[in-house]
Amino acid sequence: MRKLTAIFLIFALLSVGFSRYFIYAGFVINKNYIAASLCENRNKPQLHCKGNCFLMKKIKQAQQSEKSQAQQTKKNNLYEALIDAKIAVTAPLVKNIKRVFNNPTFIYPKKSNSVFEPPQA
């Protein structure tokens, strides 16, 4: 089961990078069918298109989807960079600071050894 999953994931990763080649291979395999039924110029034999218009349309669609995925990846990376960026705020140095609180008025409470117990209901 693990081997099958690994092969599937490898194939999925490779299919993204080689999508144009898969489109072209599918075109070569189904060239007669595409030329006969899917070609926009099938009624104009003088153009000698033979399904190339369909191939170019599919390649353009693949390029546009790759561009949109790349833009989305850039956006995600930018958001991650903005979220993960640490902003350093520095205060200007003040050389002559007078100690105002020589005698602090706040007194910390004495440490208690008892354990807090909530009231019984």
Q: What does this 3D model show about the protein?
A:
By secondary structure, this protein is mainly alpha-helical. The chain has a domain at 2-84. It contains 4 helices and no strands. The two termini are 57 Å apart. The model has no long low-confidence stretch (mean pLDDT 75).
Number of distinct beta strands: 0
Order of helices and strands: HHHH
Q: What average pLDDT do the residues reach?
A: 75
Backbone CA Rg: 35 Å
User: Outline, from the CA principal axes?
Assistant: elongated
List the helices and strands and how they pair.
Blueprint (H helix, E strand, L loop, with lengths): L1 H16 L1 H11 L1 H8 L13 H33 L37
Helix pairs in contact: 2-4
Write a compact overview of the structure shown.
With 121 residues, the chain is mainly α. The protein is 56% helix and 0% strand.
List keywords for this structure.
single chain, 121 residues, mainly alpha, 4 helices, 0% strand, elongated
